[in-house]
Amino acid sequence: MKQIVKILTIVFGVSALWIGLLQTSVVPENYTWLLPLYLIVSLGCYGLLMVGVGLMKFPTCPQEAVYLQQDVREAKELLQKKGVDVGSD
User: Fold this and answer.
1) Is the pTM of the predicted complex or chain greater than 0.90?
2) CA torsion sign, 40 to 46 to 49 to 55?
3) Are 38 and 44 in contact (CB under 8 A)?
4) Angle (deg, nearest 10), helices 2-23 and 35-56
5) Distance between first and last Cα of the chain
């Protein structure tokens, strides 16, 4: 519930700022109508940047790789006992 209130507060604040800019003559009106589009494009760029940073910092887990190799070996042994051809290592 707290997250919804936070999001609605941000949306209300941005909307109030946008409507305020439309009412005043601080920013030309033809630019003010494009502000929501700029906001959406900016959020998209920010999202892509965060995905890129997350991929660059993707942690390697050597211990998990060992566990995965062990699980693969166990699965191959189980399948071989059941008569399934799993190929060579």
Assistant:
1) no
2) negative
3) no
4) 140
5) 52
